[in-house]
Design brief:
The complex is a heterodimer. By secondary structure, chain A is mainly α. Chain A has helices at residues 3-27, 31-55, 62-85. The longest helix of chain A has 25 residues, at 3-27. Chain B starts with a helix and ends with a helix. Chain B is mostly helical. Chain B has one domain. Chain B has helices at residues 3-28, 32-55, 64-94, 102-117. In chain B, helix 1 packs antiparallel against helix 2 (32-55) and helix 2 packs antiparallel against helix 3. Classes of the chains: A mainly alpha, B mainly alpha. Chains A and B meet through helix 1, helix 2 and helix 3 of A and helix 1, helix 2 and helix 3 of B.
Chain lengths: 98, 118
C-alpha cells in the first residue's frame, strides 16, 4: 500500500461525497438544503484540489484551493443573504419592510 | 513506507471515512437542521484530518507547502462554521420546520389524553 494508492482512495472518497452532496442539491426540498449542499460541494472541491496536487506531484495547486475556499465562503454568505432579504444591498436592519 | 507516510495514510483514511459518512448523512438525514450537522462533520473532522494528513507528506517540498496547507485549514475552520451559522439563522427566520421527534411526541400525548378521558 503506497502513498499514491492512499491518495487515490482519498480522491475516490471525496468524489463520492461530492456526488452525494450534488444529489441533495438536486433533491433538496427547501432552498437552504441546496445552499448547504453547494457549500459542502465547494469545501470538498478544496480538498479534492489539494489531494490532486499531491497526487500529481504539483503542490502548487494549493493556491487554487485557497482561492476556492475564499470564493466559496463569500458565495455562500451572498446567496444566504439574497434568499433572506431578496436584495444583496440590504443592511439587515429593516426586517419589517420585507 | 516511512513513519510519516504511515501516519499520513492513517489520517487520510480517517478523513476519507468522515467525508463519506457526512456525504451519506447529508443525503439521508430527515430535515434541514440535521443535514447541517452532517455537513459540519465533513467540514471540520473530514477536512481537518485530510489536510493534516497531507502535511505529513511535505518532507521533500518547499517550506511554503505546509504553510499553504495550514492556511487552507485555517480558512475552512473559520468560514465553514460561520456560513453554517448564517445559513441556519436564515432558515430559522424563514420558518423551516423540524420534522424529527415532533410527530411521535404529539401523537403519544394525544393517546395519553385519550386514555385519560376514557
Amino acid at each position: 500500500m503506497t502513498t499514491l494508492s492512499v491518495l487515490t482512495l482519498v480522491m475516490v472518497g471525496v468524489l463520492v461525497t461530492m456526488f452525494l452532496a450534488l444529489a441533495r442539491a438536486a433533491l433538496g426540498p427547501t432552498v437552504f438544503d441546496r445552499i448547504l449542499a453547494a457549500n459542502m460541494f465547494g469545501t470538498k472541491t478544496v480538498l479534492l484540489i489539494s489531494v490532486a496536487g499531491f497526487f500529481t506531484g504539483r503542490p502548487e495547486w494549493l493556491d487554487l484551493a485557497i482561492v476556492y475556499a475564499l470564493v466559496n465562503f463569500a458565495g455562500t454568505i451572498a446567496v444566504a443573504k439574497y434568499c433572506r432579504f431578496g436584495n444583496l444591498a440590504h443592511d439587515g436592519q429593516r426586517r419589517e419592510s420585507r | 513506507m516511512t513513519t510519516p507516510e504511515i501516519i499520513s495514510a492513517i489520517l487520510l483514511c480517517l478523513g476519507t471515512f468522515f467525508c463519506v459518512v457526512g456525504g451519506i448523512g447529508i443525503h439521508r438525514m430527515p430535515d434541514f437542521y440535521t443535514r447541517t450537522h452532517a455537513a459540519s462533520i465533513t467540514d471540520t473532522l473530514g477536512a481537518g484530518l485530510l489536510l493534516v494528513g497531507l502535511m505529513f507528506l511535505c518532507e521533500d517540498q518547499h517550506w511554503t507547502v505546509p504553510v499553504k496547507l495550514g492556511m487552507v485549514l485555517l480558512f475552512v475552520l473559520l468560514t465553514s462554521p460561520t456560513s453554517g451559522h448564517a445559513l441556519v439563522k436564515a432558515a430559522a427566520a424563514e420558518g423551516v420546520r423540524w420534522v424529527t421527534a415532533a410527530a411521535p411526541e404529539s401523537s403519544s400525548d394525544a393517546e395519553d389524553a385519550e386514555q385519560e378521558e376514557a
